[in-house]
Amino acid sequence: MSTTFEPGAPAAQGTIPLSVPHVAGNEWKYIKDCLDTGWVSSVGSYVDRFEGQVADYVGAKYAVAVCNGTAALHIGLLLAGVEPDEEVILPSLTFIASANAVRYTGAWPTFIDVEPDYWQMDPERLETFLTKDCHMSGGRLTNRHTSRTVSAIMPVHILGHPVDLTPIRMIAAKFGLQVVEDAAEALGAKYYDAFVGNTESIACFSFNGNKLITTGGGGMVVTNDESLAKRAKYLTTQAKDDPLEFIHGEVGYNYRLTNIQAAMGYAQMEVLDNYVAKKREIARIYTEAFRGIPGLYPMQEAQYAFSTHWLFTVRVDSRQFGMGSRELLRWLGLRSIQARPLWQPMHMSPAHRLSYAGACPVTASLHDVCLSLPSSVGLTSDDHQRVINSVLEAAPAREMVAAGKRHDA
Ligand SMILES: *Cc1c(COP(=O)(O)O)cnc(C)c1O
After folding, report:
1. Whose Cα sits closest to atom 13 in ligand 1?
2. How far apart are CA 18 and CA 209, in angstroms?
3. Is there an atom of ligand 1 within 6 Å of 94 CB?
4. Helix axes 272-290, 381-403, angle to 10 degrees
């Protein structure tokens, strides 16, 4: 690769995407089976098999397939009994679907900060918020700032790294709150020895195109509670009480996953272990390559964690590195390498401006400095090296610009 710096004119090369599906197993065979047998829609053996397979994998008793991860979260919150005008506590650092799902129930998201080491929901800040910013009123835990009842906590396993669940579960029990885990990014991750989703409560996965495995689009609600699983199936299939007379007990949803999608998921689950191993290998190679580079700080893995490193993300200290995260984003973009900042923090989102948020300085600063780098399961070692070289070339090239070539217009 050329080391001469030509502003804005890198050699044209194929684009390296951030994270794209990897389809190389039995997907064709199983989907063809759906087509051959005519079982293409929302009933069929692959739906049941895919549900059983995910439940078995994560160590949950029940799994209910749904059309996407956002729908899974909506149903998860309904199962937890979240009511309109109540509040659900979640980290400000998340994809907007977590917060939107809360609004779908008529409840309000309340945002708290993450911890600075692994970027997950901070149990200490959670407890402080519940102790200092809430009080008991009429037997209900009430947010002092909004006078609304706090009814649930939604920890989000960000970027494939598990949340520190034990303290959060203890705090939830102490304050009488439900827990609904947003595990959309964390299929295959482990908290100590247990897979994320092996849960006392409710966990929700996504099989969107950029997630660890994909069904094109899809999601799953998992739980150990039979009655919750039955209710999830009921709510996601239009709450039908009598299939012949079409009697519906309440307003349900059409959140079903199709058999074709489930067939794809069934094939993807067969190779999930390989995908997780590949993601971890990608993270290991990046981390190794960036070791000792001033101003580049790769995401870390906690003692308690087995992370899938769903999207490998690095903190870029602009003063040390000589280039900020957004400049590096553009630099890589000019080289046909797709990188991405973290999501706009929820406490800054115009969509959630009416929700309550505590101070979230860690989330805000991570948003400024973080960049996710190409992490597809199918990333070749040549492409991986191209990304690494492009990142490493960025800082010295910047110095050259500063040193002399001021007017490159
Ligand atoms: C992807 C994602 C979702 C939503 O999943 P969809 O399948 O896209 O609806 C929810 N929460 C988080 C944290 C996600 O990353």
Report:
1. 95
2. 12
3. yes
4. 30
Nearest to 344 by CA among 327, 360, 323, 324: 360
Strand partners, 178: 152
Tell me the pTM.
Answer: 0.94
Residues 58, 64, 69, 73, CA torsion sign = negative
The H or E element that residue 112 is part of is: strand 108-112
Q: Could you report the per-residue pLDDT of 141-169, keeping only the tens digit for each?
A: 999 999 999 999 999 999 999 999 999 99
What is the rounded distance in angstroms from the CA atom of residue 206 to the CA atom of residue 217? 8
CA distances from 26 to 188, 206, 264, 342 (A): 20, 20, 8, 33
**Residue 157 Cα: closest atom of ligand 1:** 13
Phi, psi for 204 (deg, rounded to 5): -125, 130
Instruction: Please answer whether residues 256 and 46 qualify as being in contact, where contact means their C-beta atoms are separated by less than 8 angstroms.
Output: no
At 94, phi and psi to the nearest 5?
Answer: -165, 170
Question: Which pLDDT tens digit goes with each residue over 127-147?
Answer: 999 999 999 988 899 999 999
For residue 246, which amino acid is it? Answer: F
